Amino acid sequence: MNIVTLLGGILTVVIAMPSWAGEVSFKSDVQPILNDYCISCHQPSGKGYEKSGLDLRSYAGVMKGTRFGSIIKPGDSFTSIFIQVVEGRVHPSIKMPYGMNGGLAKDKIALMKHWVQQGAKDN
Ligand code: HEC
Predict the structure, then answer these.
(1) Is residue 41 within 6 Å of ligand 1 at its C-beta?
(2) What is the C-alpha separation between 40 and 62, in angstroms, rounded?
(3) 14 FRET partner, CA 20 to 30 A, in 45, 51, 67, 77?
(4) Average confidence (pLDDT) per 10 residues, the chain, 123 residues
């Protein structure tokens, strides 16, 4: 193998790494998704907030959860309702974002999942 092939190989690996290969940040990765797809309904007077009490405008709101309880179990994306609803695993009728055809893009769901998996930190 010559040096050009070697460098090419290394470059490919670096470029192919997903952006969340390191630590996912709530502030710069997760909150922007919530801002774009969730807070229209999940803030006071929004229909998601009115129905569930869930306010997704901040880390504190996400961790507080609905009026029925928390939606995040740090380190466990499988049982976290926050992830279950975007994957449509609770029930098709409460797949989030509510009423959006097809749901969130896979890479966005992956970011949210990794954030929970990494401990749902205020980072
Ligand atoms: C168009 C409005 C709307 C949008 C956008 C929306 N939601 Fe909701 N959300 C609702 C409504 C309405 C409910 C109450 C559903 C019910 O109980 O029937 C709800 C409930 C929830 C619940 C509680 C589910 C439960 O089991 O109690 C979670 C968690 C949730 N939404 C997360 C999200 C996330 C995350 C997003 C963005 C990816 C999002 N929602 C976007 C309207 C919305």
Answers:
(1) yes
(2) 15
(3) 77
(4) 69 58 93 98 98 98 98 98 96 91 95 98 98
Burial of 58 (0-12, 13-18, 19+ CB in 10 A): middle
CA gap 22, 94 in Å, rounded: 31
Residue 95 and residue 86 in contact, taking contact as beta carbons nearer than 8 Å: yes
Nearest to 98 by CA among 55, 45, 40: 40
pLDDT at 4: 72
Which one-letter amino acid corresponds to residue 8?
G
Could you tell me if the CB of 52 is within 6 A of ligand 1? yes
- The pLDDT value recorded for residue 15 is 57
